[in-house]
Amino acid sequence: MRKYFRTPEDPVLDSSIMSAVKFPGMHPGRREGKMLVGPDRVFGEYRLGNINASRMQLVVISYNPGGSTVLHVHEDQVQAYYIVSGEASVTVGSSEVLLEPGGVALISPGIPHGFRNVGTDILTLLDLHS
Length: 130
Fold this sequence. Notes:
- This protein is mostly beta strands and 130 residues long.
- It has a single domain (16-129), classed as Sandwich (Jelly Rolls).
- The chain contains two helices and eight strands, in the order αβαβββββββ.
- The protein has helices spanning 16-22, 40-43, and strands at 30-37, 57-63, 79-85, 88-92, 95-99, 104-107, 113-117, 123-129.
- It has a five-stranded antiparallel sheet, with no helix packed on it. Strands 5-4-7 form a three-stranded antiparallel sheet, with no helix packed on it.
- A hairpin with a 2-residue loop joins β4 (88-92) and β5.
């Protein structure tokens, strides 16, 4: 039986291990990542995710000060970043913007994007892919 609700008390495995294996060098300074919702077919081997949709995942990730992602492209995915805490310099295409808590960046397929923690505190964001 699938689980349809998740509470803060429920165990969630660290998805940073999966990220380091599938995308080596892409996330320097990453503190942790938690796959809250993701496709079983991709993340089942890591016991992450709990839905049968193949095109959606929701990850909460934290980066130490100075941590970043390498500028990269997803040819077939729409992505959004939602800043929970901290400050991020986010690049989408040729634009770079400082986002603070409550800020959102929307990334269309095929557009180069990435971010870095420019604050002195831990950056936490929600990363939604579809």
